[in-house]
Amino acid sequence: MEESNYGKEDRLYHGWIVVIVCLTVMTLLAPLLASFSIFYVAIMKDLNWNREETAIAVAIFLVVNGLAGPAAGALIDRYKARWLMPIGTIVTAVALFWMSRMASTWEFYLAYGVLASVGSSLIHLVTFSTIVSNWFVRHRGLAIGAVTAGQGLGQAAIPAIQYLIDTTGWRGAYLVVGLVIFVIPTVLILLFLHGRPEEAGVSLSEERLPWEKRRVQGQAEAPAQQARSFGFVIVDHNWAATDWTVFRAMRTLRFWQLTLLITLFGAGYMMVNVQLVAYLEDKGYSSMLAASAVAWQGVIYIFGRFLGGALSDRYGREMAVTISAGIFLLFLVFLYAAGMTASPMLVYASATLYGIGGAMPLPALMAATGDIFQGKHLGAIIGVLMIGGFVGGGLGAWLGGRLFDAMQSYNPHFVLTVLATIASAALIWWAKPSSVRAVRATAV
Fold it and tell me: DSSP readout, 109-174?
């Protein structure tokens, strides 16, 4: 029997091509949110806005992005990604062009908070996590970790964006970022992206690492053999056999446990993230050192994404999230210490811990959602689930600005973020995705 070109033994499994495309697009899109903290300072100084009214823009962005997530997930379940996702790149670019000309807060809220948010929802976490979950089972955590590492790669461009702001102004910087997003992701998606293996003439049974030989030759394996070859064991067969829809998932306790987990983590993360550059500058560090620390965090973020995905594939989603929470708590300790004494070394040490601890949970959580609610409606389920993350992030971003304006202190930020992180680690053990599907371990 003649095989598909993609299925030949000497060919790379096409899922990894999809990962590379998604990684590249995520990298180019990442500065849209990651660079907000440096645009935040420049815009406040230029337009004389206070912290709260400026931070409201990112709060709106996160809430709208979360609300748009279910629609994006449902659309990616129904339509071909290569025709749907370029709409997102175009809308996002238009929003950035508008932002380069804005003069009032209402324009900022509409352009960044609404238009850029809606556009980016089609080319961000929900759609990419769904597409990668369609292509991978055995190496799902690693693949999602690779794609979401793009957030770190994009963040590594922060010094370049800071340089653009310093030389051309924040308006010119937004224009350049908009042009990049308009051109490169659109072309890559149209040429190379397939949302499901069958769209490329590939079988999921061909999944393998780039350096592995094909595990399946000729006839398809029996279902039980496939489950073992994919590197996971179905623990709860009744649960795994369920045809999960959004409404059916929402009637389970596990869905709300994961939603609360993502909400709390998002709130704590963004409460610190949006204020990070302002915090360092308030403590006497230069704007370039602060931007460099954020960029270094982005570089380490890449490693953190891969580490979180790989650990979750090897030792389970619960353990990966717990380890990440511990590292994130260490980051908060080091950051607080960096504010108490002038030490660039402490700043970069905290940025390193931030990059690891802040990056590790996402691939594990997205993989956990796939483990629990695998099926043809997974995109829509992830979209609804991520509302919690974006709403929590928006609340954290707004609350961070509000607390500082009211108290002129960062201490409440640290206390609330510590509590949210500890609660997040506890919730993953309560949801326990390994009681549905146990990921590959030494016993397999």
Answer: IIIIIIIIHHHHHTTSHHHHHHHHHHH-STTHHHHHHHHHTHHHHHHTTHHHHHHHHHHHHHHHHH
Total Cβ atoms within 10 A of residue 251? 9
Complete DSSP assignment for 178-234? HHHHHHHHHHHHHHH--SSGGGGT--GGG---TTSPPS--SSPPPHHHHHHHTTEEE
Strand partners of residue 437: 234
Q: What is the CATH number of domain 5-207+227-439?
A: 1.20.1250.20
Which residues, at least 6 apart from 259, have a Cβ–Cβ distance to it below 8 Å? 385, 387, 388
Write down the domain spans for the chain: 5-207+227-439
Structure tokens at 409: 């202190």
**Residue 419's pLDDT band (cuts 50, 70, 90):** very high
305 residue type, one letter? R
pTM over 0.85: no
Q: Which residues contact 418 (CB under 8 A, 6 or more apart)?
A: 268, 329, 332
Q: Tokens 């956990």 sit at which residue?
A: 368
φ, ψ (nearest 5 deg) of residue 437:
-130, 125
**E strands, 229-369, in order:** 232-234
Spatial separation of the C-alpha atoms in residues 317 and 433, rounded to whole Å: 7
SS3 (DSSP) at 341: coil
Amino acid at 121: S
400 closest CA partner among 236, 259, 221, 276: 276
The structure tokens listed for 68 are: 């748009």
**Residue 232 φ/ψ, nearest 5 degrees:** -140, 160
Return the ∠ at Cα 175 (arms to 170 and 177), rounded to 5°.
95
Closest CA to 276 of 174, 194, 155: 155
> pLDDT digit string (tens) for 203-226?
777 777 777 665 544 444 444 444
What CA–CA distance (Å, rounded) separates 355 from 107? 32
Residue of 157, 148, 417 lying closest to 294 (CA atoms): 157
